[in-house]
Amino acid sequence: MTVAPQIQPALTGSFAGRRAVVTGAGSGIGLAIVTDLLARGADVIALDLAPGNVPDAATRVAVDVSDEAQIRDALASVAARGPVDTLFNNAGIGSTKNVVDCEPEEWDRVFDVNVRGTFLMCKHLLPSMLERGHGVIVNTASAAGLIGLPDRAAYCASKGAVIALTKQIAVQWASAGIRCNSVCPGTVDSPWVSRLLAEAENPAARREQLVGRQPMGRLGSPEEIAAAAIYLASDAAAFVTGIDLVIDGGITAG
Ligand SMILES: NC(=O)c1ccc[n+]([C@@H]2O[C@H](COP(=O)([O-])OP(=O)(O)OC[C@H]3O[C@@H](n4cnc5c(N)ncnc54)[C@H](O)[C@@H]3O)[C@@H](O)[C@H]2O)c1
What we know:
Elements: E1 19-23, H1 28-39, E2 43-48, E3 59-62, H2 68-78, E4 86-89, H3 104-132, E5 135-140, H4 153-173, E6 178-185, H5 191-199, H6 203-212, H7 222-233, E7 244-247
Parallel strand pairs: 1-2, 1-4, 2-3, 4-5, 5-6, 6-7
Bound molecules: nicotinamide-adenine-dinucleotide.
């Protein structure tokens, strides 16, 4: 098995003095973003349905990002810490149905979390960013927002919407000090994929199939996606806005 190389903090440097909100912070990619930010000295506010896994060094808040009232309460509860300059919209859920199989309720829930959640977090944090003339948003989209994958109708469509919303926000406020970009991971070895495998009839064969579609012959690690998200949030990306940064072991290149 090919193993993911160790990530070195590269160009991106310190986040001391910065305050970041991370959604979907309790697992996988979000947890890796939180861990990386804490190591770089950021003040981190970690939002999740279940934030129990997040290290104590971050402020943990239980919130469903699809619920506007919960977002208002969560942001009010941490307002005394001071303004937020960096937002990682990372919370997301999947769906393994095609258009015929997918019930409208499942379609709506995927859009509620992946798209409405991203919209609501931006809606409630952008005003203070605009007031201060500075803010950075990084949305976790997916390679599935750029290419069609079988049995991922709602998921592909929702991540395509996240990529489009990212570009819209980028052009809306590029001259107002706001940058907004997305990361588009390929298949990443997070608890999400562990759940997919656990549901498979033959988990080992399913894993082989997921690995087999990757030109690099391995899955990504949450830390590799976090490194790209941190880069986009950092000053090293000061001239970067509106992009969808693909980190996928080559899957969309084929
Ligand atoms: N794992 C992959 O292969 C992969 C690939 C491409 C994109 N992504 C995207 O990366 C992001 C993170 O995925 P992951 O692999 O770390 O998954 P994960 O399931 O390990 O973690 C997702 C986290 O989001 C939280 N969450 C779910 N719904 C929420 C809600 N309504 N409100 C608040 N928090 C909520 C969960 O509690 C969980 O802690 C998602 O947006 C996912 O679509 C993952």
